[in-house]
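Worked example 4.2. Below are the chains of a multi-component assembly; read each line carefully before continuing.
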Amino acid sequence: MATKDPGSLLSRLPVDAVDSETRDGVLFALPYLLVFSVFLLYPLLKGLYMSLFDWNAFNPSQSEFILADNYIRMVQDPTFWAAVRATLYFVVLTVPTLVILGLALALGVNQDIKGKRFLRTVFFSPYVLTVSVVSLIWADMYAPQYGPINYYLEFFMSNPPAWLNSYTFAMPAVALATIWWTVGFNFVILLAARQGVPERLYEAARIDGASTWRAFKDITLPQMRPALVFVTTVQLIASFQVFGQVFIMTDGGPGDTTQTLVMYLFRVAFRQQEFGYAAAIGYFLFVVLVAVSLINYKFVGGND
Amino acid sequence: MSTSISTRFTRPEPKTVGLYVALYGAALLFLTPYIYMVSTSLKTEAFAFSQQPYWIPPEITFRWYEAVLQGAPIFQWFLNTLIIAGATTVIVVIIDSMIAFSLTKLEWPGKRIVFTVIIASFMVPIYANMVPLYTIISDFGLINSPLAVILPFSAIPIGVFLFAQFFKDLPDSVIEAAKLDGFSTFQIYLRIVLPLMKPAIAALSLYTFVYTWNQFLWPLIVLQGENSFTLPVGIVTTQPTQVFQPGAEMAVTLLAAAPLFIVFLILQEHLVNAVQMQGTTG
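Applying the procedure described above to all two chains together yields the following structure tokens:
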């Protein structure tokens, strides 16, 4: 291990003035900083650089500097804006439901009921599945010919939607599968947050004769606010970057109705080999995510 | 307490009944996809394509499992995934705990800037970075190598942040005492900090392992040959039967989901803690 003899490396350098704590501090930081610089910081800078070129994926030295042309192309690209709309639609379909359903399940399981552990296992379990497993199961369940969902819907309606092949219902179908997959994450975090609310607050409210609704509004929600903001931020970021579900279940279709930003980025980069343009889209996504996070952090910061 | 005794022996309130119906009804809905997967993987072709969902197959067959085990290198994928998730976890725990120790317990010029940069980079999604990262991995000649996944995932800063949160609470007096006993910085890290931080290490290891094991997009980009696939990539890019068969698809899905699901059932408490830890420190 490189750290076995932390002294030998730097003691040979002319840094006698550096005290041993500084030397050890730097040495302990070095391994991570190396990986971090090469595989996170450097790509971040290189992405900005690449986005200013008509990048030649096969022979980068043939790339042509075009300044902001990739960004200009982006704002004029209808497929890009369709991807922005699809992404926003997915965010709207998933984030509020994921937070509210997660909260409802957490408050329910927190009640005095039998089988808490069983319920927690069931609601949390899909979270450990990979997106491929989730997508393949749900794609089969949605299948119009042999899937169980439409079999049951036919008792209620004569012509149930073709789900993943439907312009209207493909995205809601992907959203529903996503909710099943990730609501367990919010559920366990909100359950822990609810259990952290001091019981005496509720006792005091009961003595004051407050209704259940009042207790929820005036105690539960404000006390759980940091956790609620946290799960909302995490879900916003995750939903903005949705990829696997649409890639596997619909491949962006039908038409481009479920082609989200990361899906489009993937297509531009690895099917059309337009690395410069893809890097520009990647940078756009990055800026949006930073903005979303900052707005949320500010939101939390006010209550700290 | 008299009130609790009296409520225990009276009939349950309608509100309680409603709660049970809602929660256990939701639980049943949550279990349906699992039941579908298991039952379809055991159905004969005729029943798998039937309109009517036979939740309990009238006729059971294992032919899809045989087809999958013969038609797809699923064991190789399992090994690849294990190597990638295992190596990433080990690297993350070592390098993240080292730098977190340095940032919280050692004084050196510039560390505040370093810490700020790392925390700020929290927001850099690996997806937004994927095109430049791909060219870098490609320049290193790492396409198709497990390292193409291991190294970028080792750079994610969440572990540094979580470890730093825990190390901050470690009393400085413990470290001062060890220094007086003549411990070197490395000995303090190895013999004092790490043993005291076992719960944090366990939680972060489990979290990193599950996170890396389940990754899809990045392995899909950098692992391009069938034999270098991970389980999440392999099961959607390779079809084990000549024509599409729901039974075969659900069999391969179940085999891919099983290893981590079993780990989850055994280590459930720890994984839940690991997830909750993020919520409370984040």
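Take a moment to check your reading of the output against the notes. The radius of gyration of chain A is 25 Å. Chain A touches chain B through 96 residues (CB under 8 Å).
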